[in-house]
């Protein structure tokens, strides 16, 4: 079985996609945290980021990992 961690280009793609999603979510997330609890936003987004990072080693291919984002 080939895992996503064995392909450097796949890791680069995942990192790039993650950065783009983070950049796109930063402004709306800031606006949302101004309206509701900042602490809740930070805790939930941090937990989600840790979960997605933990899934990288067990993803079978790039498509299965990207599908978790949607």
Number of domains: 1
Low-confidence blocks of residues? none
How many helical elements?
3
Average pLDDT level: 76
Could you say which structural class the secondary elements and strand pairing correspond to? mainly alpha
Number of DSSP E strands: 0
Biggest pleated sheet: none
Rg estimate, integer Å: 14 Å
Q: In sequence order, what are the helices and strands, one letter per element? A: HHH
Helix percent band: over 70%
Shape: elongated
Q: How far is the first residue's CA from the last residue's CA?
A: 24 Å
Strand portion, in percent?
under 5%
Spell out the blueprint of helices and strands:
Elements: H1 8-35, H2 38-55, H3 62-69
List keywords for this structure.
77% helix; mainly alpha; 70 residues; 3 helices
Structure description:
It is built from 3 helices and no strands. With 70 residues, it is an all-alpha fold. It has one domain. Helix 1 (8-35) packs antiparallel against helix 2 (38-55). The protein is elongated, with a radius of gyration of 14 Å.
């Amino acid at each position: 079985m080939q895992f996503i961690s064995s392909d450097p280009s796949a890791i680069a793609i995942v990192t790039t996609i993650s950065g783009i999603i983070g950049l796109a979510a930063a402004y709306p997330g800031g606006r949302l945290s101004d309206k509701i609890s900042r602490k809740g936003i930070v805790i939930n987004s941090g937990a989600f980021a840790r979960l997605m990072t933990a899934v990288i080693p067990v993803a079978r291919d790039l498509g299965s990992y990207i599908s978790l984002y949607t």
